[in-house]
Amino acid sequence: MWIDTHCHWDAPEFAEDREAVRARALAAGVERFIVPAVQASDFARTQALCRAAGQPYALGIHPLYTPGAQDADLALLDRLLHEAATDPLLVAVGEIGLDFFVPGLDPERQQFFYAEQLKLARKHGLPVILHVRKSADQLLAGLRRIPVRGGIAHAFNGSTQQANAFIELGFALGFGGAMTYERALQIRRLAAELPETALVLETDAPDIPPHWLYKTAEQRAAGERSRNEPAELPRIAETLAALRGWSLEQTAALTSANACRVLPKLNPPARA
């Protein structure tokens, strides 16, 4: 069984064939894909889609959406986390974090929403799914001030020292399409050298396409699009397997076990 730990299946890019995307994922052996919401206006729709499909989800305010976020969104998140406390499909608070790569975002506003959502994760006993882009040290500082039940550092591309700091705080690190590019030397080195218990797989669909889906600037200008989807996960996993010297079966078993460890509600119920 494969688990895609980060997939925006609720995104508009999947509006026309969402069920076909899910069917292709299941056919490829991707039995579960975690759908993290990105803004308060999406919470109800993300919940409804995932509950209907039996897929896990997370609720949170993404740093790129903090310019339009309000204090009332945090109150809504708090209420929904309380109401869904017994929902086995709600596995984390996310996608939350900090983004110091995209220009024009207010760092103080990002820090406010990040800290407040860490407090909600701690209040409700949930792990978090973190957006990490040029922000690993600041995210780690926040986690040390407001400890939570670990989680996943999504699309990790930091240093070995930063990776180990997340691991010490109970986090796994997400690896996906970027790892398939031969020039992604740092990501591939991390994937090859970090403890096997620290690795989970993701697509970030429809984003971060693997190399076989990549479109050049000229192709994009001509209207061609590259849409990633969860069915690509096993092929992405082949890169990790090659880097580690694992079989695909080992890779599926290890990364799925890691996902279930850091997101405990993913664990299947005990059989009677």
Order of helices and strands: EHEEHEHEHEHEHEHEHHH
Give the CATH superfamily: Metal-dependent hydrolases
Radius of gyration: 17 Å
User: What is the arithmetic mean of pLDDT?
Assistant: 96
- Spans where pLDDT lies below 50 across 5 or more residues: none
How is the main sheet built?
Answer: 7 strands, parallel
CATH class: Alpha Beta
CATH topology: TIM Barrel
Shape: globular
Give structural notes:
There is one protein chain. The protein has a single domain (2-266), classed as TIM Barrel, CATH 3.20.20.140. The chain is 41% helix and 15% strand. The protein is built from ten helices and nine strands. It has helices at 18-27, 43-53, 71-83, 107-124, 136-145, 160-168, 185-193, 217-221, 233-244, 248-262, and strands at residues 2-4, 30-33, 35-36, 57-59, 90-99, 128-133, 151-154, 171-175, 199-201. Strands 3-4-5-6-7-8-9 form a seven-stranded parallel beta sheet. Strand 5 (90-99), helix 4 (107-124) and strand 6 (128-133) form a beta-alpha-beta unit. Helix 3 packs parallel to helix 4 and helix 9 crosses helix 10. The longest helix has 18 residues, at 107-124. It is globular, with a radius of gyration of 17 Å.
How would you sum up this structure in a few lines?
Helix content is 41%, strand content 15%. With 272 residues, the protein is α/β, with parallel strands linked by helices.
